[in-house]
Design a protein that fits this description.
The chain has 432 residues and is of the alpha/beta class. Helices cover 29% and strands 24% of the residues. The protein has two domains: 103 residues, Urease, subunit C, domain 1 (Roll); 306 residues, Alpha-Beta Barrel (TIM Barrel).
């Protein structure tokens, strides 16, 4: 991680929001030697000699975001994104830890590749990069990867990214081995034999003349996965859920006490199928955007805590992959830089409390991954974001830090801006 000013820092007059403890009060926080040394809601901690003193002006100081699902193109797809550009985007968006998916060339299915990524991240990244290793060799879904060796090399979770493991025996074996190593299995839940369409199945797809992808393709896989999680007692995480039927399966599994969790993407919380409008390919996602009723179901499930995690699902695509007829365009949208501010839309609409949103974007991901962060407490890493939740602005995609510009928020009116991001006590982003 590139060096920068690492003086002690004291932030005063801040709204301290800590989802882990429930703290939400005005106070001050002291950072020294890369960790939170002190915090108080009563009196400012004593400022060490030479410390930088920042008056937050009542803005929010919170744990940095932990994004559990982002595509970073190294190795093999650096033209779409690389570690350096992804880290710039993450820092600007308040994301201090990023889990990168293994859909690279070659796939991250070998301990040497995990080591390569960690070394490159140490040299090139402003934020913390954590590799998620392949669940199956070559992401082919045929043979389980070496879970133990990959975890020992530094992989924090196991997934085939946007690929679904269709063979139940392979997936069950992977859950069993992952259980024995205490590893988390994150799965993309879409039956590929039912997912050939370009958007959500239904009336709107028919009106556009596009093939549809049904919610049943998702729920069938979730149902199967939960049964296998019950059988193996493995740790299972459904990466991106998009419909009520799937959420009902997860609710029953949690009520049963299974080690089952789930997430959704900020895009599925923000948009519905009608946003595709006149074949706007920046809204072509996998899984697809659903109906407005399903979007509201997701928001409610997030507010209730049924949905554990919100991810960016950062999937950069170059212009040529998106300048295609809708049915032929590549799936995916970038999201590292817009995850927090898009989530603030839900807060401003009164649909979710700010601490609950931050818990799903920081505390809970850190807990599931077993990494430090996601909390404001003495001794915790000083991975922090200071943001103004009220500042209005209009997004210009050409000003985003990512190498690719395929954002569905282009020209969107947004409210909230990251003012400063710290990783290990070092300032890695400061608003102009």
């Amino acid at each position: 991680m590139p060096a920068s000013d690492n003086r002690p820092l004291i932030v005063t007059n801040a709204r301290l929001v800590d989802p882990a403890s429930g703290r939400d009060a005005t106070g001050a926080l002291l950072v020294r030697n890369g960790v939170i040394e002190d915090l108080s809601a009563e009196a400012n901690p004593a400022a060490p000699d030479g410390a930088e003193v920042v008056n937050a002006g009542g803005n929010v100081l919170a744990p940095g975001l932990v994004d559990m699902r982002a595509f970073i193109g190294e190795p093999g797809f650096e033209h779409r994104e690389n570690i350096a550009s992804a880290s710039l985007a993450a820092a600007a968006g308040g994301v201090t830890s990023v889990v990168c998916t293994p859909e690279t060339e070659p796939a991250i299915d070998d301990p040497a590749l995990v080591d390569f990524l960690m070394r490159r991240a140490n040299d090139d990244s402003l934020v913390r990069i954590y590799p998620a290793a392949a669940l199956t060799k070559g992401l082919q879904g045929q043979e389980m990867a070496e879970i133990g060796l990959l975890k020992a090399a530094g992989a924090v979770a196991f997934t085939d990214g946007a690929h679904t493991v269709t063979k139940a025996n392979v997936f069950a074996r992977a859950l069993t081995y992952a259980r024995d190593f205490g590893a988390l299995v994150m799965h993309h839940t879409e039956d590929p034999t039912m997912s050939g369409g370009a958007m959500n199945a239904g009336e709107f797809a028919s009106r556009l003349g596009l093939g549809g992808r049904s919610t049943e393709a998702e729920t069938i896989v979730v149902e199967r996965d939960v049964r296998l999680a019950r059988m193996t007692r493995g740790r299972y995480h459904a990466a991106i859920l998009t419909c009520q039927n799937s959420l009902d399966v997860i609710r029953r599994a949690k009520d049963e006490g299974l080690a089952v969790t789930c997430g959704t993407s900020i895009n599925h919380l923000s948009f519905n199928e009608t946003d595709i409008g006149d074949y706007r390919t920046f809204f072509k996602l996998a899984p697809p955007l659903r109906t407005e009723d399903e979007r509201l179901n997701l928001v409610e499930a997030l507010s209730q805590g049924l949905i554990d995690v919100v991810v960016s699902d950062h999937t950069p695509q170059d212009a040529e992959q998106k300048r295609q007829p809708f049915s032929e365009a590549a799936h995916g949208a970038i999201g590292l830089e817009t995850m927090l501010v898009a989530g603030l839309r839900l807060v401003h609409a009164g649909q979710i409390a700010l601490p609950a949103l931050l818990r799903a974007m920081s505390t809970r991901p850190a807990e599931l991954l077993g990494i430090a962060g996601g909390r404001l407490e003495k001794g915790a890493p000083a991975d922090l974001i200071l943001f103004d939740p009220e500042e209005p602005w209009v997004l210009d995609r050409e000003l985003l830090k990512s190498r690719s510009k395929n954002t569905p928020f282009d020209e969107a009116r947004l409210q909230g801006r990251v003012l400063r991001t710290l990783v290990g006590g070092r300032t890695v982003h400061r608003a102009a």
